[in-house]
Design goal:
Layout: E1 2-10, E2 16-25, E3 30-35, H1 41-48, E4 56-61, E5 64-65, H2 74-79, E6 81-85, H3 96-106, H4 111-124, H5 140-152, E7 158-162, H6 170-185, E8 189-193, H7 197-201, E9 206-211, E10 214-219
Parallel strand pairs: 3-8, 3-9, 6-7, 7-8
Antiparallel strand pairs: 1-2, 1-4, 4-5, 9-10
Helix pairs in contact: 3-4, 3-5, 4-5
The chain binds adenosine-5'-triphosphate.
Adenosine-5'-triphosphate (ATP) binds near residues 39 and 42.
């Protein structure tokens, strides 16, 4: 589903954030991406979403070489990917429904399909019935679930998360991880960047460790 082939990234005026990274993620695999602050975790995720371009090397997502995508193909590429952020980046003046529906409206879904998919996405994260609420009326854990519902509403093949449990206590973090596992169980490929070593250790999943832009260790779990 994902292949990095000797990928390097140097930001203009900056040092090399990634320095020749290679790995593959199978379809339906779940893995953690970890490493010190500044190791290159967010950069790696941004390259997959084409928020940044590599300086060297090739990235394949769903068989597509991202270097070969034209600007007009980028929105279609992004629809294959759901993204969850630490601060969930919800629109606080909009309802839960509006927040989750946003990717569908951008993709041009009609209102009926939109309503059906938003309900299914909210159901999958255990928040059915909260459509009319504003994010500010929800707990931190619920807000993060809204962020996950928005990430999966398009039924993406690949789910990326950048510190998705950064602001949550251990119990809520575990609940969020259970949700990611459920998506993996239905065939979604999941890659989670996190500092939370105790959380990773509680889960029997592959671990990619980055250090100064290189893969220090790729620990598979069988
Ligand atoms: N837009 C940018 N311009 C210049 N340098 C950048 C930019 N984004 C990241 N960097 C640098 O690239 C390196 C890797 O950053 P990145 O955010 O990918 O690391 P990270 O592992 O996600 O860190 P953290 O855990 O702190 O979020 C760092 O040295 C960072 O300062």
């Amino acid at each position: 589903m994902v292949r990095f082939d000797q990928v390097a990234k140097r930001y203009s005026g900056g040092k090399e954030a990634l320095a020749g990274v290679s790995f593959e993620l199978e379809r339906g695999e779940m893995a953690f991406l970890t490493g010190h602050s500044g190791a290159g975790k967010s950069t790696l995720l941004k390259l997959m979403m084409l928020m940044e371009r590599p300086s060297r090397g090739q990235i394949f997502v769903d068989g597509q070489n991202l270097n070969r995508l034209t600007p007009s193909q980028i929105p279609y590429h992004r629809r294959k990917i759901g993204v969850v952020f630490q601060n969930h980046q919800l629109l606080f003046d909009r309802t839960v429904y509006d927040n989750v529906a946003l990717p569908l409206l951008i993709a041009g879904y009609n209102h009926m399909d939109c309503a059906r998919r938003v309900r299914a996405a909210l159901d999958s994260v255990g928040l059915l019935g909260l459509e009319g609420r504003k994010p500010v009326e929800l707990s931190g854990g619920e807000q993060q679930r809204v962020g996950i519902a928005r990430a999966v509403v398009n039924k993406p093949a690949l789910l990326l998360a950048d510190e998705p449990t950064g602001n949550l206590d251990p119990d809520l973090s575990e609940e969020i991880m259970d949700l990611f596992m459920r998506f993996q169980q239905v065939g979604v490929t999941v890659l989670i960047a996190t500092h939370d070593i105790s959380l990773i250790e509680s889960m029997n999943k592959r671990r990619l460790i980055l250090e100064h832009g290189m893969i220090l260790e790729d620990r598979h779990v069988f």
